[in-house]
Amino acid sequence: MRISELSDATGVPVPTIKYYLREGLLHPGEKVTARLTEYDDTHRQRLGLLRVLREVGDVPVERLGQLVATAQSTHATAHEMLAAAAAALAPTPPEPTEHRAEARSVADALIDHAGWSNVHPRSADRDNLAGVLEAIMRFDTHPSDPAEVAPYLRAADEIARYELWHLRQDTGRQGLLEEMVVGQVVFGRLLGILRRLAEEHYSAIRFGQVSDPADASATYDGP
Amino acid sequence: MRISELSDATGVPVPTIKYYLREGLLHPGEKVTARLTEYDDTHRQRLGLLRVLREVGDVPVERLGQLVATAQSTHATAHEMLAAAAAALAPTPPEPTEHRAEARSVADALIDHAGWSNVHPRSADRDNLAGVLEAIMRFDTHPSDPAEVAPYLRAADEIARYELWHLRQDTGRQGLLEEMVVGQVVFGRLLGILRRLAEEHYSAIRFGQVSDPADASATYDGP
C-alpha cells in the first residue's frame, strides 16, 4: 500500500509516518519506482504499536527508539528480549537518599518473599521499588511489613502469570515483543483506572451511607 | 517549631516551604513575635504529604492546590470529599475520537459487570476507561470481552476493598483524606512496579528456560 493508504489504515497522519521513518522508528518501505514506495502489514502493525504507546502509554519518542532497537536486535532468548523491552519502559529510578540502602534491603526482601527469584540483581525496578517503599516508610501511614503489601503482591503475581501465559505464540518474536509492550503499557493504565473506579465504589459503601455497611462487610472476605 | 526545624523534620528545604506558604498549599504558622513564627504537627504532616506527592506521585503543583482546597472544604460526607480528591488526581481523559461513544458503552457495561454501582455517572474515570479500551480495541491484541479483563477487574476490586477497609479511623477527615491520597498515588505506583517485577520473573520461566516450564505450569492455577 502507499503511504496515504497506510495513514488511512492506521489513523497516523502522513507527516507523522514520515517523521517515524526519518527517526528509524519505522522501517523503510520498498521502493517500486522513483516516486512510489510500497508499505505492507509489518508497517501497519508497527504504526499501530507506536500509536498506542504514544497515545495511551505516553511513552516519549526516545523510549520508542530504544524499544525498536530492542525489537531489531537478536537476543539469546525471548526472555532477554522482553527484559530489555521492560527496561526501556521502566521509569528512571528516583535519586538515592540517605535511607536508600535500607529501603533497597526491604525491596530485595519483599521480592524474595514474593518468590520472584528470576528478577535480575541489577533490574532497575529493584531501585524503583526501593524508592516507593522509602516514601511509604517516610510517610509512615503503613509500615513496610510484607503483610501490609500482601494484596498488592498477590494482585501483581496473578496478573503477571495471566499475562505471560496468555501471550499469543503464533506471532513470532516481533509479535511477542509488541504484545508484551502493549500489555505492559496499556494494561498497566487499565489496571490503574479500574482500581480508582473500584475505590470510588467502595468509598461510597464505606463512607457515603449509600448502601448498608453491614452488607458491605458481609461480602468482604478479609485482606 | 521554627521553619528551620520544620525543614529538618520533613526534609523539605526552607525555600520550598516558603513557596508552599505563598501558594496556599501550606497553612500559615502562628506569629509569636514579629520575627518568630511557630509551626506545629499539622504543618509537619502536610509537608510530608506534599513531599510524597511531589516525589513519588509526580503530581503537578496545580493538582496539589486542588487537593488542599478539597481538604479545606466541608463536604457533606467523607465519600464526597474522597471523590473530589480522586477527581483532582485522575488524569485528564484523552481526546474523544470517532469510536469514543462505542468505547464508552463498553466501559459502562464493564463497570456494571464489576458491580461498581456507586461510580458516579459523570466520573472522569469512565472516560479514561473508554480511552484505554479504545486503544485495546484498535490494537486488537485482546478483544474487549469482560472475560479478557477479568483478572484486572478482580485485582482492582480486591485491592480497593482492602484499602477502604484498612484506612485508619482515628485521624479525622483531614487524616482520612491524606491517607486516601497517599494510598491512591503511592500504592498505585507500588502496584505498577510489583507487576513489572512479577512479569520479569514469569517471563524468565515462560521464555527463558531458567526453570522447567512444566514446573511453571504445575504451579499455575489458571487465569
From TrEMBL, chains A, B:
> Which Pfam family, any one of them, does this sequence belong to?
MerR_1
Q: Residue ranges of the HTH merR-type domain? A: 1-70
From what superkingdom does this record's organism come?
Bacteria
Q: Which GO terms describe its biological process?
A: regulation of DNA-templated transcription
Q: Which residues form the signal peptide?
A: none
Single GO MF descriptor: DNA binding
Gene3D superfamilies, A to Z: 1.10.1660.10
The protein's matches in InterPro entries, at most eight in alphabetical order, are given as: DNA-bd_dom_put_sf (IPR009061), MerR-type_HTH_dom (IPR000551)
Write down the PROSITE patterns for this protein, in alphabetical order. Answer: HTH_MERR_2
**Protein name in the entry:** MerR family transcriptional regulator
What is the source species?
Answer: Nocardioides guangzhouensis
Which lineage ranks, top first, belong to the organism behind this chain? Bacteria, Bacillati, Actinomycetota, Actinomycetes, Propionibacteriales
